[in-house]
């Protein structure tokens, strides 16, 4: 529509004027994906934030992502167009809970998924994302105990992939991914049995799909547990014509855009993250106009958290 076009034009103009860049996560609404300077998974966006020459970063994603960008770039202005864009997974552990857990395992190495608050990161030795969690845990000496948080499904996946016995897992979850059930994936597969299965490790079905795979119920060579960015790469390269997508459905817009001749089927069409959908074109425009909302992290917390985040961006 004309209104939408004029908002987009204004955004482009303001971006130029302010030397700003738009970073967007793969779960953003299509209109935001279509105007992003960089679209990607959590790791790709953290790396993009680190490498940009822009003065202003508008983060089209959720709060912890903007915080991570702020920690990596204290001298830049980091904007989150809606302060309410949080994350149920990040909310599943507080810094006090982590401190108590650490006291119970004083020798353990703490690995935090990037979906955590800056305070939790500051109490962690390593951060990781879904695309490098296995590599990060593998980089830790075998005899060291590991506390992995906060996602139980990603934790179980990493524990199986690394074969690590001395790894304790926090029982948090993302309500969107936990809602994608193993039965749904198996059922969709029954109706599309030539399809490749792409499963995010935060899903309730990710670890059970490993069993289903081992039992021969899901085909070994077609079942892939991947981050959102890895899913996109995989679907671009694969010769399959159909893909069952077990993650937040926003990514399907990008998959279809990059592969107009392939078919993408949501394992659960109701897997929609309400936080990711809070970012709209109007709010992006307002954020560039009014500097809303500037995300900063107190220096002391940022310094400690940066150590863990630096390891995340450099491994895997
Ligand atoms: P990735 O895009 O890094 O796979 O993360 C998924 C997610 O849920 C982010 O909130
Ligand atoms: Fe958080 Fe889940 Fe939404 Fe990702 S999809 S931002 S993990 S609530």
From TrEMBL:
Entries under SUPFAM superfamilies matching the protein: NadA-like
Localization in the cell: Cytoplasm
Top EC class, one word: transferase
Gene Ontology CC: cytoplasm
Pathway per the UniProt entry: Cofactor biosynthesis; NAD(+) biosynthesis; quinolinate from iminoaspartate: step 1/1
Main localization of the protein described in the UniProt heading: cytoplasm
Cofactor note (record): Binds 1 [4Fe-4S] cluster per subunit.
EC assignment: 2.5.1.72
Cofactor: [4Fe-4S] cluster
GO process terms (BP): 'de novo' NAD+ biosynthetic process from L-aspartate
Recorded catalytic activity of this chain's protein: iminosuccinate + dihydroxyacetone phosphate = quinolinate + phosphate + 2 H2O + H(+)
Secretion signal, residue range per the UniProt entry: none
GO MF assignments: 4 iron, 4 sulfur cluster binding; metal ion binding; quinolinate synthetase A activity
Domain of life: Bacteria
InterPro entries from the UniProt entry: NadA, NadA_sf, Quinolinate_synth_type2
Binding positions for iminosuccinate per the UniProt entry: 25, 42, 113-115, 130, 200-202, 228
Binding residues for [4Fe-4S] cluster: 87, 174, 273
Keywords: 4Fe-4S, Cytoplasm, Iron, Iron-sulfur, Metal-binding, Pyridine nucleotide biosynthesis, Transferase
Job of this protein: Catalyzes the condensation of iminoaspartate with dihydroxyacetone phosphate to form quinolinate.
Annotated family: Belongs to the quinolinate synthase family. Type 2 subfamily.
PANTHER family found in the cross-reference section: QUINOLINATE SYNTHASE, CHLOROPLASTIC (PTHR30573:SF0), QUINOLINATE SYNTHETASE A (PTHR30573)
Protein name: Quinolinate synthase
Species classification: Bacteria, Bacillati, Bacillota, Bacilli, Bacillales
Gene name, Swiss-Prot/TrEMBL: nadA
């Amino acid at each position: 529509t004309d209104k939408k076009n004029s908002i987009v034009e204004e955004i482009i103009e303001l971006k130029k004027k302010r030397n700003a860049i738009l970073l967007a996560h793969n779960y953003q609404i299509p209109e935001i994906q279509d105007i992003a300077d960089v679209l990607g998974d959590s790791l790709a966006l953290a790396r993009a934030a680190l490498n940009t020459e822009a003065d202003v970063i508008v983060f089209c994603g959720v709060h912890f992502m903007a915080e991570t960008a702020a920690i990596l770039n204290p001298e830049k202005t980091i904007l989150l167009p809606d302060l309410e864009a949080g994350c149920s997974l990040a909310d599943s552990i507080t810094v006090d809970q982590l401190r108590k857990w650490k006291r119970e395992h004083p020798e353990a190495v703490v690995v935090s998924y990037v979906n955590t608050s800056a305070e939790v990161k500051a109490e962690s030795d390593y951060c990781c994302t879904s695309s490098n969690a296995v590599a990060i845990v593998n980089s830790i000496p075998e005899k060291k105990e590991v506390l992995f948080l906060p996602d139980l499904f990603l934790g179980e996946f990493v524990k199986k992939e690394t074969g690590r016995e001395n790894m304790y897992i926090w029982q948090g979850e993302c309500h969107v991914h936990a809602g994608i059930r193993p039965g749904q994936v198996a059922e969709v597969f029954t109706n599309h049995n030539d399809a490749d299965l792409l499963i995010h490790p935060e899903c309730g079905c990710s670890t059970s799909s490993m069993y289903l795979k081992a039992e021969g119920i899901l085909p070994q060579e077609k079942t892939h547990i991947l981050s959102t960015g890895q899913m996109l790469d995989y679907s671009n390269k694969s010769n399959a014509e159909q893909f069952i997508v077990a993650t937040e459905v926003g990514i399907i817009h990008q998959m279809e855009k990059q592969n107009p001749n392939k078919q993408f089927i949501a394992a659960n069409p109701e897997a929609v993250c309400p936080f990711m959908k809070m970012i709209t074109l109007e709010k992006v425009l307002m954020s560039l106009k009014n500097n809303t909302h500037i995300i900063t992290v107190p220096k002391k917390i940022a310094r400690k958290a940066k150590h863990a985040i630096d390891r995340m961006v450099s491994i895997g």
